[in-house]
Structures are given as structure tokens and as C-alpha cells.
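The instructor's notes for this session suggest beginning with a concrete chain rather than abstract definitions. Hand out the sequence below and ask the class to guess, before any prediction is shown, which regions might be ordered.
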Amino acid sequence: MQKTTILLCFALVLSLICAPAPSRAEGGSWSQINQSVARGEDWQRYVTDPSDFQLGEAVPLSDGKELFVCGWGDYPSIDGSTVCVPLAMELARQWLDLPEEDLNGFVSFSTTPYAYDRLFSGQANPMVTIVSRGIMMDDTHPVDIVLGTGPNADERQAAADAGVELVMVPVCCDAFVFLVNSENPVSGLKADEIRGIYSGAIRRWEEVGGRADSLIAAYQRPHGSGSQTAMEELVMDGYQLSAAESIYISDGMADLIAQIGSYDNSVNAIGYSYLYYVDSLYKSGSLKVLSVDGISPTDENLQSGAYPFTVNYYAVYAKGNETAERFVSWMISDAGQACIAQAGYVPLR
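After discussion, reveal the predicted structure:
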């Protein structure tokens, strides 16, 4: 590491160790989560040989200080989407047996676009810590795996421009869902009605069975976010997504949910997110998840593909990365899928 980086690492780890409890980092994925992500009481270990993926050696950061820099060893450096934070935490529980209080610092996700940028450019996921041991993970080791939503067209082109051939392996299922305030009488929409709303062809709730004389406030996410990619490439299906006013673009998923779930002029709002995020990671106000074409996003409807906007979360890595390939192969094994289910996700099978 460079001298400046070492000093920054020293200051960060020292501040974390001196704190009464590990705090969620400002920005990144932890700023978009307001629910506890803890190990359940009936937790089980599915890893039979933990020696397959272990961290490397921890070496002292400086003489006389109980602060260390640890190599990644056989364990992959992971970054990704907010919605996959609990998945990465469960992987660390299974393989590394880290104390619960260390998992917030060890799983430090930067959100989808930044994670992909690191993967394509060979950059590290910095500021990953194991607080109780005074460890800062090696911040020169490039990201091995991105866990989350798939890359959008711009990101796929960026990978090609960088000479990176991507391997995208689906690891679980989820639903891309549409949300309204619980006070909205609409409980479901047709897929074409959703496209009509977001293309600007449908502007009033009464056109889809809602309140009369109520304009639809259709919230979006910024281009490059995982949910916006799903909206553009999965939902719109050739329709032109209408440009939203800046007040209807939510920087984070938490912001969008807060807008729709609040009681202040949000009864006319609609937005989108992932079911796992809405159910498990961020709760705000009173929301209603809409059915689409009369089909609800149940586990069975996701595994069968009956729900129209069923999605996968992927493990994405550069072709030729043997550590990533071995680790992802375990994730889609029976033991890996049981681990994923234990984290609350819908397994592939």
C-alpha cells in the first residue's frame, strides 16, 4: 500500500475499534438499509470444508500497533448491489465464521454502478474491515465478484472496451415490483398499463381504475442503478421511457420508498424496486405491492417464471478469474443454494 493509504487505513481501523459498536458507513449500500441484517436463531452451516475459501495472512500495519492488513487469500473480494448485502453477509458467515459485529464492516458494498466500474477497471473494494481483529483488508486486490443485478448496456460496453469478458451466473430469483401507497385503491396493473404510465401515455389514475382527477406521480431511479436497468431493459420492452422531472428521480431506493410510503401527497405516487429490498431491507410508511397481469410475486411464481417481471441476481466476474469461478460454482451447488435460501432469497430451484 502507499504511505498515505496506510495512514488512512490506520485512522479508519483505529476509529472503528474505539467506537462502542460498529457503525454503518456513510454512503454506499448501508445508507439504503434501515433494517437489521442478523443471523437467525435457527441458522445452519452448510459449508463442509471451510478451508476451501479462507482469507490470507494478516500482517502488522506498523510496529507496536495491534492493527493489521490482511490478504484476501482464497476468498473473493466482493462488491455489488444493495439488495445483495445480506447474501454477502451470509457467505461470510458460512466460510469465514466472522462475528456478527464484524459483518457490517466486512460487507462494504458501493452500489451497482460503482461495483461494476471497479470490476471492469481492476480496482479494489476499499475500506473493508474486520473490526474486532483490527484488520483492514488489502485495498490493492481488485474486485473478484459483483453480486447483484446484471450490468446495463453501457456497463456491458464498458467491460468490452476494457477487454473484460464477463461471466454472468444467476444465483437466485426475485421480483421487480411496482409500489403504491396503501391508500391508493389500485391493487394491480397490467404490464401494458405500467408501460403506458412510464411512457407518458397514461397520466391519470382513473384510466387504470384509480381515483378520478388524480394525476399519476411516476417515480424513477437514475440511469445506471440496478432498478433503473430493470425498468429500461425488462419492463419497457421497446417502449420509450418518458423522461422524468428531477423531483421524480430518487437517488437511492430508500428515497423512492420513503416518497411513496409517506402520508404527504404520496397517494398518487408509483415507483419500483425489488421485493427482497422492500420486504427485508428498508421499511418506510405504508406501501402496497401491486400484482402484474393478475399475478402476485410469490416464491412459487418466481421460481416458475409466472410473475411477468421475475429477475435474477447474478454473480458476475471476469472470465479467467479462477477464484471467482470456484466460489460461484459453490454458490449454485445444493449447499450454496441452501445458504442463499437461509439468507431469505428465493433459490433457483
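Then share the key points. The CA atoms of residues 32 and 252 lie 7 Å apart. The longest strand covers residues 166-181.
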